[in-house]
Amino acid sequence: MLVRALDKPKKISLKMRKNKLKQLWKEGKTAINAWLTIPSAWTAETIAHTGFDAITIDMQHGLADYQTTLSMLHAISTTDAVPLARVPWNEPATIMRLLDAGVYGLVCPMVNSREEAEAFVGACRYPPLGFRSYGPIRANVYAGDDYFENANQTVITLAMIETAQALENLEDIVTTPGLDGVYVGTIDLSISMGLAGLGDLNDKKLQNALNIIMTQINKHDCIAGIHASTPESAKKLSEQGFRLITPVNDTNLLRDAAINALEETRKWIG
After folding, report:
1. pLDDT in tens, 136-163
2. Residue 1 lies in a domain
3. How many other C-beta atoms are found inside a 10 Å radius of the C-beta of residue 186?
4. Residue 106: closest CA among 128, 119, 121, 116
5. Active site residue 74
6. Residue 10 pLDDT > 70
């Protein structure tokens, strides 16, 4: 049967895709996240297919621009991994554009005050909860045609705590309406605190800072994320209460694997 040119196609009704991370956290579980710095859709797809709960594209210190990030989101979307991104800075245009591209959560660097946290959240939420402009061009496709009605409750907002100033203003930051939690930048935090080691979790002063953060997180029922250098440290951080843990970085994985392969091969070849 031929369809006449003037016949309008029926609109397909889709329910918004759930944010799996929120469900995991509701159940008291820890989500395991991978961190991408290589500007490659193939790398993103390969990592996503290993089974991580979430994949974060790093646009601050990673090498991907917007167009590459969009391709990486396409690749991640071939799996059930939740697509996240760290924005380059607390800047509304970039934040809104990434959300329109279908990112389900954002990590914002260097949030040092309640005012900065409010600016970040405001850019992520549609009115009346924020000032996000309407235009979810890919988000409607990835998430569903009721994206607008559910985005404010689905998109995750994490402010990075990575300075001594942020630590001082911690309670003001975590109580910002619409902020889901924080992501601790241990290296910048240790630099800001004047510590000798960079992100050394065995440093007593840094560990004390983490305890302070977790006290506020538990008090205000928020989520905290963090990088972990080893599976053992990931276990300890999860037991400490961190609910988004990143044990791998694609660049480090590639470099370490290449070094190990080279060293093992040289043992046999010389």
Report:
1. 999 999 999 999 999 999 999 999 999 9
2. no
3. 23
4. 121
5. no
6. no
Count of structural domains, the chain: 1
190-223 pLDDT, tens digit per residue, is 999 999 999 999 999 999 999 999 999 999 999 9
Q: What is the pTM of this model?
A: 0.94
Q: Where are the alpha helices (DSSP H) in the chain?
A: 20-26, 41-48, 66-76, 92-100, 114-124, 139-143, 147-154, 164-168, 170-174, 186-192, 204-219, 231-240, 250-269
Helix (H) or strand (E) run with residue 154 in it = helix 147-154
Report angle CA 133, 135, 136 to the nearest 5 degrees.
Answer: 115
Q: Does residue 10 fall inside a structural domain?
A: no
The answer to whether the beta carbons of residues 247 and 240 sit under 8 Å apart is: no
Q: What is the CATH number of the domain that holds 117?
A: 3.20.20.60
Residue pair 14/42 in contact (Cβ under 8 Å)? The answer is no
User: What pLDDT is stored for residue 122 in this prediction?
Assistant: 98
Q: Active-site residue among 61, 74, 220, 227?
A: 61
Is position 2 within any domain? no
HSE, side-chain direction, 13 A CA sphere, residue 23: 7
Cα–Cα distance, 222 to 216 (Å, whole number): 8
pLDDT recorded at residue 15: 85
Instruction: Show the tokens assigned to 96.
Output: 């809104």
Tell me if 161 sits within 8 A of 185, measured CB to CB: yes
